Amino acid sequence: MTSTPPLARALGFAGLLPQAAVVVMLAAGPAGWHLAALAVGYAYATLILSFLGGMWWGLAARSSDQAPAWIWLAAVAPSLVALATALALAVGVSPPGPMLVVLGVSLLGSLLVDRRLAADGLTPSWWMRLRWPLSLGLGLFTIVIAAIS
């Protein structure tokens, strides 16, 4: 299969809507929604970052006899980054803005892992056509949330 499955494309792009809605709520919504919108934007970024690690784990498991060790390590990194940002917020080391930037940059950086997985032949042929706009979109929306928060 060389074209992106329509359902994967539709659901993938629908996954950008929550972060886009947070940007709109922070930019134009009532002040009373600000904290809730910020929490949703943070939580969604951590959720999707961890989801990406799960996808990489699944790709490695599917080809475990061919999967290099780096994939297994890369697959757990997103959850650890998400946890580190949560701990920084929970103990008051950092306000949400910088942690949202860390998450946004991590989402953008996930493209490097995806590119390597594709180059190693561990992904479907359409993988990068979907991953580029989704990672760029979510990463940039998350950084915008940090900037306007």
What's the gist of this structure?
With about 150 residues, the chain is mostly helical. It is about 80% helix and about 0% strand.
Walk me through what this model shows:
The protein is mainly alpha-helical. The chain has six helices and no strands. Helix 3 packs antiparallel against helix 4 (69-90). It is globular. The mean pLDDT is 96.
Q: Which labels suit this protein?
A:
0% strand; 6 helices; 149 residues; mainly alpha
Biggest β-sheet: count, sense, barrel? none
Strand-pairing-aware structural class = mainly alpha
Radius of gyration: 16 Å
How many helices? The count is: 6
Distance between the termini: 42 Å
Shape: globular
Helix content: over 70%
Poorly predicted parts: none
State the order of secondary-structure elements, H for helix, E for strand: HHHHHH
Total DSSP E strands: 0
How much β-strand is present in the residues?
under 5%
Mean pLDDT: 96
List the helices and strands and how they pair.
Blueprint: H1 6-14, H2 17-28, H3 34-62, H4 69-90, H5 96-119, H6 127-148
Helix pairs in contact: 2-3, 2-6, 3-4, 3-5, 3-6, 4-5, 5-6
